[in-house]
Design a protein that fits this description.
single chain; about 800 residues; alpha+beta; 5 domains; 5-stranded antiparallel beta sheet; 3-stranded antiparallel beta sheet; 10 strands; about 65% helix
Length: about 800
């Protein structure tokens, strides 16, 4: 209960500004003239074609700030106009031409009308500014798209020219030869004193590197044994997989990268080695070797080819091994060609070799993408001989195989355009595709990690001990969390992918922000954000009222000594009031007012008139049942011919469980509109009635005494009021008696009656008290002599 109170208090404090109004700085209206000057200056700079990326970003940020101020100013003017319009409406309709009105009212009408016209003019100015801002954003989008296309559609010389192709090959051969001889050239070019220093320190350097490798080896073993994969864990959850994966990534990638980083740091500070082509060769090789180790470690950590239960991305073991080997090979190939390309650029080699290396790099990347796609997606398992014949239909390609073929065609086309001189376009498509796939993989891991962490959080005993939430409720919470997480993650992933492919995401976000913060339809301002917050607030408040209800049912409040009917009435009232209060607060958070609620109430009244009267009648009857309590949960009732136990009383209907375990839903209005029988209305005491008939020759006193003795022998029959026997009637075939007795638990009535009947039969047989069958006496008469019976008359006449 304490936790529930704290939760309610925190929520009310969080929502208090929506009702009390938070302190805000004084409103400063936007100056349209000054803003137009800023927008004109921005448009002039953009149209000049000299604005760089940073300047365009600054202009976009400035325009976004202006748009925020414009929306706030327009909203303020709209509120002021609504206030003035209410005052004008309070003065009544304007008089006709031939009519007049009091001077004071006319003066006020003129004053308010002038203010209204002024606010309308200001709102129109804000709308004009919105149009100017849209023009600026459109101009920025146009400039970015044009620059992107100009950058990637630059055509260079084609490789199909024989002279250029031969020149590229000879230049590349010279480049490789220079790389091979660079260590020897460096050593021969050293002064004698530096050559001696190198000879003296080379063993020291080798020893230090060996020591670093040994230290890295033992550190890796320690981390692997403490935080790595554990064979004792049979079914690790996703958070355990990620935690162990991070440890293994440190072992496989971070520690080797640290050793390489230390080498780079030493190389940078060593003026002897870090010179000329050999120094560039060592530095560039170390950098791309670092990239390779980190990529290889990430691949082996994610796919874990040798330990399937710790795999972060869930694929089959054979597929994981194929993908892992393909990715490691691709990483080595891409790092190698990127090393050559980067080194040629840093060594200021001829542009033809850089040009050739770019084409070669595109070819290697495209080949690696196709290789990985084929290993991951394409189903190339041949049919098993003997399992198919000529009449066996062969299925078409699977969806994954079709995707693999599409990727193959895309990469082939992307590489092909580079052969015709569009190298930048080829680089753009291939590199963006690789980055997109990596981004999707990262989002997949993050999504699974968040779900795993939320699952671990729900396993805490805190939820069960504090809020009495069962496992079923927690599973529902996990389901709804996953349902809400998926669109959020997809939205972020789409935005990242759009940014990767050069889409102006900042402009897109500005449009989305404008849509969420509010837009106008006619004279109505609609805010999607406020609507979403109102819906969230509604469900959160309903959940809190649900916790309060559960506290009355199973929590601390259930320990309060009160009648079960009163408790059920409180629980049902909490449900009803919780819905009403949650709806009112949600409307307030959405920006609604009492007038909005009045409109909704009017619409509901109209709906009642059209056909909701039955529902409203049931709701009113439900409130009456809850407070007058003609029935309560657990009562034994007969309603409309349906007999059973009351299991649940809702605001609209009541659930009755019959003796054959079926459930009958009875509208509450039907309960109050007809008579009902409640066997337990005033308590559990009930009467048991046994009717029995004996023969006319039986002893009446013996019969009555026997019946009373049998009733007294049953332990469930009350002695007060004591059992009684009534001589009811002289029947056609028997003397009719009625045994009346009472029990403290009316639900035992059937069992008591069954026991009494058995004992009556057995006792009457012992005492020779006859229980006769129904009897009928038949007299046969013959017609008198000399009389003629009717032709259709029966020879027998019956008289009873």
């Amino acid at each position: 209960m304490k936790k529930l109170t704290l939760s309610l208090t925190a929520l009310l404090l969080a929502l208090w500004p929506a009702f009390a109004g938070a302190e805000t700085p004084a409103f400063v209206p936007l100056n349209p003239a000054a803003v137009n000057k800023k927008l004109d200056a921005a448009a002039t700079k953009l149209n000049s074609g000299k604005a760089g990326k940073e300047e365009i970003a600054a202009i976009l940020q400035e325009v976004a700030g202006i748009e925020d101020d414009r929306q706030q100013t327009r909203q303020q003017y709209a509120e002021e106009l609504a206030s003035v319009q209410k005052k004008l409406n309070a003065l009544g309709p304007a008089p006709e031409k031939d009519e007049s009105e009091p001077a004071a009212i006319a003066k006020q009408r003129k004053e308010f009308a002038g203010k209204a016209d002024g606010y309308k003019a200001q709102i129109a100015q804000m709308d004009l500014l919105a149009a100017r801002i849209d023009e600026i954003n459109g101009l920025i989008l146009k400039i970015r798209n044009r620059r992107l296309l100009d950058n990637i559609l630059v055509k260079q010389s084609s490789i199909f020219h024989p002279e250029e192709f031969w020149q590229s090959l000879t230049t590349f051969a010279g480049f490789v030869f220079e790389l091979v001889k660079s260590p020897f050239s460096w050593y021969r070019g050293l002064p004698p004193e530096k050559e001696a220093a190198v000879n003296n320190n080379i063993l020291t350097v080798i020893g230090v590197m060996a020591g670093a490798l040994v230290a890295a080896f033992f550190l890796s073993r320690y981390i692997r044994s403490r935080l790595g994969y554990r064979a004792a864990v049979e079914h690790p959850d996703y958070s355990q997989k990620v935690r162990a994966g991070i440890a293994m990534f440190i072992v496989r990638g971070v520690i080797p990268a640290a050793v390489i980083g230390a080498f780079l740091f030493w190389l940078k500070g060593n003026g002897v080695v870090n010179t000329g082509s050999f120094g560039l060769l060592l530095h560039t090789a170390a950098v791309y070797l670092l990239y390779y180790y980190l990529t290889k470690a990430a691949v082996r950590t994610v796919f874990t080819p040798d330990n399937g239960k710790w795999r972060i991305i869930e694929v089959a073991d054979g597929c994981a091994k194929c993908i892992s080997s393909a990715l490691v090979f691709s990483a080595a190939a891409v790092c190698t060609v990127s090393f050559l390309q980067s080194l040629a650029g840093r060594m200021d080699y001829d542009s033809s070799i850089v040009y050739s290396l770019k084409i070669f790099a595109n070819a290697v990347k495209a080949f690696c993408v196709v290789l990985v796609a084929r290993k991951a997606l394409y189903n190339n398992n041949p049919p098993v001989p003997g399992e198919i014949d000529d009449d066996t239909p062969l299925d078409g390609l699977s969806t994954a195989s079709k995707i693999s073929l599409f990727i193959t065609f895309l990469m082939t086309a992307a590489f092909a355009v580079s052969l015709f001189g569009y190298i930048r376009l080829s680089e753009y498509v291939i590199n963006r595709f690789i980055i997109s796939v990596v981004a999707i993989g990262v989002f997949y891991i993050i999504d699974k990690l968040i779900r795993g962490l939320f699952h671990r959080i729900l396993q805490f005993r805190f939820w069960l001990a504090t809020f009495r939430l069962g496992h079923k409720t927690l599973r529902k919470a996990e389901f709804w969390f996953g349902l809400l997480l998926s669109p959020v993650m997809w939205a972020f992933a789409v935005l990242i992918l759009l940014a990767v492919w050069g889409v102006s995401v900042d402009l897109l976000l500005a449009r989305i922000k404008g849509f969420l913060t509010g837009f106008n339809i006619g004279g109505i301002h609609i805010s999607i954000t406020s609507i979403i917050l109102g819906i969230v607030c509604f469900f959160v408040l309903l959940s809190l009222f649900g916790l309060l209800k559960n506290s009355f049912v199973r929590g601390n409040l259930s320990k309060i000594d009160m009648d079960n009917g009163v408790r059920n009435s409180l629980v049902s009232s909490i449900n009803f009031l919780g819905f009403i209060v949650s709806a009112l607060i949600a409307v307030a958070v959405m920006g609604g007012s009492l007038s909005s609620i009045t409109i909704i109430a009017g619409a509901l009244s109209f709906g009642v008139g059209l056909g909701l009267q039955n529902m409203v009648g049931n709701l009113a009857a439900g409130m009456t049942i809850l407070w007058e309590r003609p029935i309560k949960i657990g009562d034994w009732v007969v309603i409309g011919g349906q007999e059973g136990l009351v299991r649940k009383i809702n605001m609209r209907s009541t659930e009755i469980e019959t003796w054959d375990k079926s459930t009958v839903i009875v509208p509450n209005s039907a309960i109050l509109s007809q008579s009902l029988t409640n066997y337990t209305y005033s308590g559990l005491t009930g009467r048991v009635v046994i009717k029995v008939g004996v023969g006319y020759d039986s002893d009446i006193e013996l019969t009555k005494r026997t019946l009373l003795e049998i009733a007294a022998s049953n332990p469930d029959v009350l002695t007060s009021p004591e059992p009684s026997v009534a001589f009811n009637n002289l029947g056609d075939s028997s003397l009719e008696f009625q045994l009346n007795c009472f029990t403290a638990n009316v639900f035992k009535r059937s069992g008591i009656a069954n026991d009494l009947r058995e004992k009556i039969i057995n006792r009457f047989r012992e005492l020779k008290i006859d229980i006769p069958y129904p009897q009928r006496t038949v007299y046969l008469e013959r017609p008198a002599a000399g009389t003629n019976a009717p032709k259709d008359a029966s020879p027998f006449a019956e008289r009873s």
